[in-house]
Amino acid sequence: MNFREYKVGARMFGICLGGSMCITLLMPSYDFRSATSTDMALRKQLSAGWETGWNVQDPLMLGHNKPLTVTVKVDPKTGAALPAPITVFVYDKGVHMPNAADHPDNLGASVEKLSLDKGHIGEFDAATGAVYTIDHDNGVPYIENLTATKSWTPDEVMSKASDGDVAHVGAGKTMFVREGCWWCHTLLPEETQDWQVFGAPPYLGDFNGESPTAFGSDRKAPDLLHVGSRNSSREWMMLHFFNPRLVQPHSIMPRFDYLWGEKDAKGNKIDYDKWRAEYTEYREGKRENPPEVPSYAPNSDIRALIDFMLSLK
Amino acid sequence: MLKYLFAKSEDIPSGSAAVFFGFSSILWFVVGTGLGSFNAAKLAFPDFVTGNEWFAFGHMRQVHVLAVIFGWISMAFAMAMMYITPILGNTRLWSEKLGIWNALLWNIGLSLGLTLLWGGLTSGREYSDFIWPIDLYIAFFMALPLAINVWMTILARRVQGIYTTNWFFGAGVFMVIIVFLTGNLPEFFHLTGLSEAYLTWWFAHNVLGLWITPVAAAIAYFTIPKVTGNPLYSHRIGHLHFWSVVVFYSTPAAHHLMSAPLPEWLKSFASVEGVLILVPAIAFVSNILLTMQGKWYMFVESLEIRFTITGVLLAIPLNMQGGFQQTRAINWYIHGTGWIVAHAHLALLGFSTFLEAAAVYLGLQSLMKRKLYSLTLGNMHFWMLLIGFSIYWISMTIAGLIQGAGKIYEVPYIDVVIAEHPYMIARWLGGTLVFASNIIWLYNMWMTARVGTVIPAGRMPHELAYER
User: Fold this and answer.
1) Which of B58, B344, B346 is nearest to B207 (CA)?
2) Chain-chain contact of A180 with B120 (C-beta, under 8 angstroms)
3) A211 to B194: CB separation less than 8 angstroms, yes or no
4) What's the ipTM?
5) Cβ of B28 under 8 Å from any chain A Cβ?
6) Phi and psi dihedrals of A81, rounded to 5?
7) pLDDT digits over B411-444, tens only?
8) Residues 60 to 89 of B: which have CB under 8 A from any A CB?
């Protein structure tokens, strides 16, 4: 054990590496903690849910146990029409509560105080689930737990909502992560001329509570952080996902037709081989029009993914 | 190899673990570059093998990256450590049995992790894509046994000092465990938001800076003096290299997120520290090249020296790019473009791979005591690897500059895609050449093990390279 002569070196090594980790990990962590959630952060956190990477609640990454984004037009208690529709985030029983419910300190001081005092986010019962919305107080956003403040339950909200009012954003972000969309599409407009094309670059507090952030690093395709503001056409998204060359002949995006699953919206089996054969004929000029893209089933993966895309405002 | 799993330690031939790691690493190199070539084909021809989840680009891209990093590069490192550390300590590997178990557990864990990733089970964090149970497996069943073996071999050495290579090995295996456990904290403790994003890139930076770069350099510190017979030019410059890696290379993680809303002080600090990466880089390159004094003919004649020196020469553009491309003045133009992809391949496929390939060539021949089966195939491997890599690097650099121009001049994105198309084809051709060269290498090494000429005791394989 001839180690003694390296005692000084080993201590120097510890000081160097420890010092480096102190500056690069400990010091920034105070800055990150003091970041105050913006509207965008609250929206992303509540719509995507606790975690959209791999986690034990959704071990096969099928988009299970994720919150729903619901547009509420009538009061679910009384049935009276609301003055204006509001967006709520429904966490049914069994769905992991958002990060802010367990760790409100991650919201940033002012948002945390409002969310706790006026929004009652601390008062949730995982056994019944909760309904959240985003409210404002003098321009400061905060999370309101409607189950605590108005005793709206997930079941009541869902019973008054039609399928068109519901967006599977949490499941859709899971698809975004699982299918590796972020290997080519970034979620981070840069502070160069990007903001004119892809929208505003994000601020310090735009990510609080989000996991994974999936910024992406290798932009082989347009940035998507604000794609829902540029293009809100569900029809275009559907064609583009099924075969991007239908709407953009030069696109190098892969086809995501397999996300349609076995059956289309009417419950008929989708014949992929026939579709591809007809598409090949179209591309070779033997057909005037490409084959019709099958409409997706309401519980298909692609529906969730398109819901997520359109939620990226 | 598997018959030694339950054998008594003294019955296991010295070097078995290193040979196991060596052949595994070549196999993973073939797999990794094969996936890379396949992925590149999909970027050039998007309808190539389509409509199947298991062959979708988004499912395969990360498998390529991690197969190459944890299969090829890291297993070649393990091979080099198990071969070189005992030699430099004038002793045997501390536990040959632990080494064989380590190689087996490494292959099992990596196969499992990559299969899950391929199926889409990912943490969604670049470079730390593995899900957290696999992360823990990697730290405690792949990295830790290797570290124990390296440390114990160094402690059990029968020489007075510790040579430069072994400082890096001993520190590298320590740092990779720390980096792994720290970088995956967001998954273990569900850290979110910017903490998650920043730690993702803290990991990505440091797994390169504190594991791949120093350990690859350490291999060159062994190969060049060993094969040329020259002593290392300067022990002190080696010190400068070692300490500046620990101090400077561990700090600039934030420069990967220059366009993200991190605190400004952190970005400025990272940028300055990033330029200081040139200190260890220049120390390393000058030390190695000066060690070659009087032996430059070996750059032509010796396969191992040719591989090593090519890798060291590629470290010059690598660090010139790396030091300056992360400053704000340059980063705003090239961030997120193919330039970065080219740079990453310059680091891993250029600089690092060439150094490790030399170690695997030299180590497998020495340990199996068999001369390389065919020097011609070895030369073919070298040139196909170098030409394939060069095509890849040049085409992706050009593609990146096109993308950068498209970005700042607000060119509609699809026009950038169209302009990049020829370079995507070139990239695929370059990658395929690399893949083909590795199949040749695997064949050559396999035949070396089977029918290579036996090396007489006391002689080095490179001394016999031209003898029939």
Assistant:
1) B344
2) yes
3) no
4) 0.95
5) no
6) -65, 140
7) 999 999 999 999 999 999 999 999 999 999 999 9
8) 61-62
